[in-house]
Design goal:
334 residues; mainly alpha; Serine Threonine Protein Phosphatase 5, Tetratricopeptide repeat; 2 domains; two-stranded antiparallel sheet; 69% helix
Length: 334
């Protein structure tokens, strides 16, 4: 779990005040490691429940869970984890159940914080990992903030990769990884993950769904493999396949094909053909630094320094924009 999401939950720290455990309790329970460790409890609880009898201990437990979920690197997080395990060796399961309940009632921030806490207790907890993925996905699907979406998508992807490592037989991991790769335009990887999902899963609607997805991607996977042949130096072999699609609907509807063809022609020294394809690609996707970089190469090869410099400048603008906006902005074609 990376700290990239901490900033989205930092404001919740202000909901808490910090008190210390009574010295008599620490001595009685033999938990010297908690001496002088401030315990978080919600301000609302202090205001509503504090009296001569003190605050019920469960509110301190909830405070510790929430605090490590808000910021796993919090100064006392390690002590809180030790204490939570001390009071209940099965605390992780309890936290998972709380998180699932919050998610089901659509309290997504609180659910996300709760699953983050469970992963502080046990980073390999499958229930926490899987539900963390689901909650983070729901959170970015409800947002229109591109930076927020990018952070949560990255968190989901890294969590899925971790799940794949520690729970290699859990079929749902491959289901969601396939979609992550598909959305990134990595069709061969999507196919690979979905084939693993089919190997591990049983009958059901989702199996039929993924079988249909794989079938629909046949051409995209074939084209992507041909492109890798091109950039791997097998230019003729790759172009032979790519050119099969040159006069098809795919050429019109899927800009990567024209880009792949342009790269192939460029590597073979067919610069006029390359320029035609790359100009078509940049018209379809004007915010791609990769296409612009290929246009620099082709214009240089054709002795057109004016247009080569034009695309060098455009690359700088696009890279600067994408450093602020992970999804980039729209530019203009040649």
């Amino acid at each position: 779990m990376n700290d990239r999401l901490n900033k989205y939950f930092a404001e919740y720290v202000n909901d808490y005040v910090f008190l210390e455990l009574m010295p008599d309790y620490i001595k009685k329970e033999h938990i010297d490691f908690m001496r002088n460790v401030p315990m978080p409890v919600k301000r609302s609880v202090v205001n509503a429940l504090a009296d001569d009898q003190g605050i019920e201990f469960k509110y301190f437990t909830m405070g510790m869970i929430n605090m490590i979920g808000i910021d796993p690197a919090f100064k006392y997080a390690t002590k809180y984890v030790m204490f939570l395990k001390y009071i209940n060796p099965h605390i992780g399961k309890v936290i998972d159940d709380v998180g699932i309940g919050l998610a089901q009632s659509d309290h997504l921030d609180e659910a996300c914080i709760t699953f983050r806490a469970a992963l502080c207790i046990n980073p390999d907890d499958l229930d926490a990992l899987y539900n963390y993925v689901l909650v983070c996905t729901n959170m970015y699907n409800k947002s229109d903030d591109s930076a927020y979406i990018a952070d949560f998508k990255t968190e989901v992807f890294e969590t899925l990769i971790h799940m794949k490592t520690v729970h290699p037989d859990f079929d749902r991991t491959y289901y969601y990884l396939g979609y992550a790769y598909l959305n990134a335009g990595r069709y061969t990887m999507a196919e690979h993950e979905w084939e693993e999902f089919l190997r591990l899963s049983g009958p059901g609607d989702e199996r039929s769904e993924i079988e249909a997805r794989i079938s629909e991607m046949t051409d995209a996977v074939r084209i992507e493999k041909a492109y890798h042949d091109v950039i791997g130096g097998k230019w003729e072999q790759g172009l032979k396949i790519l050119e099969e699609y040159k006069n098809t609907k795919m050429m019109e509807n899927w800009w990567p094909l024209s880009y792949y063809l342009g790269v192939g022609y460029s590597r073979l020294g067919r610069y006029d053909d390359a320029l035609e394809m790359l100009k078509y690609a940049v018209k379809k996707n004007p915010s791609s630094p990769e296409i612009c970089a290929e246009l620099v190469i082709v214009h240089n090869a054709l002795g057109d320094e004016v247009n080569a410099e034009k695309y060098r400048r455009k690359i700088k603008i696009l890279n600067a924009a994408q450093s602020d906006d992970p999804y980039g902005g729209e530019g203009s074609g040649e």
